[in-house]
Amino acid sequence: MTTASDLLGEGVTWARAEHPHAAHLERTLFWARELEPDASGVLLLAALLHDIERAVPDPGSPFDSARDWSLDAYVDYHQGRSAAHLARWMAERGAEADEISPAVALVAVHERGGWPEADLLQAADSLSFIETLTPLLREWIATGRSSQADALAKLDFMWDRIRVPAARERGRALYEGARAEVA
Hints:
Blueprint: H1 4-18, H2 22-35, H3 41-48, H4 65-68, H5 72-92, H6 97-107, H7 116-132, H8 134-142, H9 148-160, H10 165-182
Helix pairs in contact: 1-2, 1-3, 2-3, 2-7, 3-6, 5-6, 7-10, 8-9, 8-10, 9-10
C-alpha cells in the first residue's frame, strides 16, 4: 500500500525536475508543516502538488493567469485541472484510493479553502506565493501581461484570503516586503 506520505520524496523530485515553480511548491509544503506540525501525509502531498497542472500546459486554454487570476471560471479551471492531474499522478504511483480521494478534494479547493485542512492548504499556498512568486509578478509587469496595480491586487488578494490566524501572524513581514518589491 502506497500512502501519500510515501510519495512526498518522489513528489519533491518530480517538482524539481518538471515544474516551472518548484520553489513555490516546496515552500507550500514547508508552510503546511510549519502551520500544522501534525499534518497528515495527504495534506502535505496536496500542499506539494497543489499547482501540478502548471507543469502540463494546455495549449487550448483561453486563460492567462496574469490576467484572469480573479475570474471564477479560471479558478475553477486551474483547481479542476490540478485535481485531475494529481489523481492521475498518485494512481500511476500506486497510491490507495482512500489516499487519492482526500488529496484530490483538497487540491480541488486550494484557492478557496472551505474547511480547516483546506484553509490550511490555502494559507500555505498564499504564504509561499508571497514569499517565492513576487519575481513572477514583476515579470508580469515588465512583459506587459499585468499592470502594476493588477499585480499588487493579486498580491493583496493572496494575503487577504488567509483565514488561518497563525499564517497571518507569521506572514505579515513577508507580505509587507513583497508589496514593497512590487510597488
